[in-house]
Design goal:
By secondary structure, this protein is an all-alpha fold. It has 24 helices and 4 strands. A hairpin with a 6-residue loop joins strand 1 and strand 2. The N and C termini lie far apart (52 Å).
Length: 475
């Protein structure tokens, strides 16, 4: 009997050794890595919830919990809007309207910040932000905040849906049509702006098309416009060029939908999207072989986004130690992640909007058609000082009067109480998380520069020092 027990025990050990590593339960560090990369922060309770799970099961749980709609109520003015007739307004009325639109723009940005800070589906907001920087539009050109809200709602609906469906909807989106001058695209004078960005920024990337393709694609989209009465999409048949066209080898009386079909059939489109998602979730340097493998998954799934993300998150490069701490948090990720991790009450989300803008990321207003460059561009001499200064003020390391308005924690009630803020935070952690090594792992994706600050058990002072470590800017 004893020999049988030994045999069974040995067989279990051998079987466990033969199983892939991803089939075993996640470690704390792995759970944190998955949560931070797929969201904004990893709170102890969310990490603990994933610990019994394998990588695949944890990935399925995160993807399965996503929702296509925001939980935060949108500003009331988004519900019913009629485009103003500027030519009918007086000078004073135009000035008043501009002030009103600026107020709405700030409210819209604050609304999205709040949704990111409180959502139970952070991956939805991460992907909405990703698509916002892929299908770039901006208030400086669009002017009407309600159109940008509608676009944001569209991006969220398809954030983890189907890329082909999203691409077709964006091509008809009024904010995009205004931003890239498609609303005025007519056969008498074809405008190439949308067609060019469709090829270069949305699907293929530079170097995979000819100028003739752009010109004929622009003709195919003539007549796609915006209704002046309600700012909805409309097709103006009189403006459309119904002549013969040739786009990437496809010939005929092509229209806009035909061009999009040609682009979705092109193998480069899946590769281009995978490369961008790789830079979002893994590292700045996509692996060509892995990209091709993932692009095949994307194409086989008919451009469904969830199967692609499942494969991306399950890939060896995603979990590779050398890819930990390789990505720099964007200003939005930095601010939202800090608020979520420490559960900081926010009185005015407009203040987060201003802080993010100061750090270089102004929501709904990317710098140009290419969006925010990201990566190392997020960190400059001035922005790094601003990031560190902000953290010092939040954690009580700066002057008593310097706490950012809007983050109303115990940190704003005097220097002494601010200094105790993270002592309280540490004390409120589950007991298993109060060790210094656990808190360090919770805050940093890689080891801190100064490891001598660590003791056996964490303290508020150690937490403040860890937040000042350069590794806190990484994910």
């Amino acid at each position: 009997m004893r020999d049988q027990v030994r045999f069974v025990f040995a067989a279990v050990i051998v079987l466990a050794a033969l199983l892939p590593a991803s089939a075993s339960a996640l470690s704390r560090d792995e759970a944190r890595h998955l949560l931070v990369r797929s969201g904004f922060a990893a709170e102890p309770e969310t990490i603990d919830a994933l610990l019994p799970l394998s990588r695949e099961t944890a990935i399925d749980r995160i993807l399965g919990a996503t929702v296509p709609e925001a939980a935060t109520p949108a500003p009331g003015w988004t519900a019913d809007w009629t485009p103003p007739r500027m030519k009918d307004l007086t000078r004073e009325e135009k000035q008043a309207l501009r002030r009103h639109l600026r107020k709405q723009a700030l409210e819209l940005k604050a609304w999205w910040f709040e949704e990111m800070a409180v959502t139970a589906s952070p991956l939805t907001e991460v992907m909405t932000l990703f698509w916002h920087n892929h299908f770039t539009s901006g208030l400086r050109k669009v002017k009407a905040p309600v159109l940008m809200y509608r676009q944001n709602r569209l991006l969220r609906q398809e954030a983890l849906g189907n890329f082909g469906r999203l691409l077709r909807a964006v091509a008809r989106d009024p904010a995009m049509l205004v931003y890239l001058d498609g609303a005025r695209n007519r056969k008498q004078a074809p405008n190439e702006n949308f067609a060019r960005e469709l090829f270069e920024l949305f699907t293929l990337g530079e170097g995979h098309y000819q100028e003739a393709d752009i010109k004929d694609a622009a003709r195919a989209f003539t007549g796609w416009s915006v209704d002046r009465k309600d700012a909805s999409f409309t097709f103006r048949q009189r403006w459309h060029d119904d002549g013969m066209k040739s786009v990437l080898g496809a010939q005929g009386r092509l229209n806009g939908d035909d061009v999009i079909t040609v682009l979705l059939d092109h193998p480069r489109t899946a590769v281009f999207i995978v490369e961008k998602l790789w830079r979002q979730f893994i590292s700045e340097d996509p692996d060509p072989q892995e990209v091709e493998r993932l692009a095949a998954v994307f194409r086989e799934a008919d451009y469904e986004i969830k199967p692609l993300l499942a494969a991306l998150f399950a890939s060896d490069p995603f979990w590779a130690p050398e890819n930990r701490g390789r990505l720099i948090k964007s200003p939005v990720e930095f601010l939202v992640g800090t608020v979520r991790l420490f559960d900081l009450p926010v009185e005015r989300y407009e203040d987060l909007v201003r802080l993010s803008g100061r750090l270089g990321q102004n929501l709904f207003d990317p710098p140009n058609v290419k969006g925010w460059p990201g990566g190392t561009a997020w960190i400059t001499a001035s922005s790094l000082v601003d990031r560190q200064s902000l953290l010092e003020r939040i954690t009580g390391g700066g002057k008593a009067t310097a706490t950012p308005a809007g983050m109303q924690s115990s940190a704003n009630r005097g220097e002494t109480r601010r200094a105790r803020m993270f002592d309280t935070w540490v004390a409120d952690l589950p007991e298993a998380w109060r060790r210094a090594d656990a808190v360090t792992m919770l805050l940093l994706p890689i080891a801190p520069v100064d490891s001598e600050i660590l003791d056996r058990y964490a303290s508020g002072a150690q937490v403040r020092q860890l937040l000042g470590d350069p590794a806190y800017q990484l994910k």
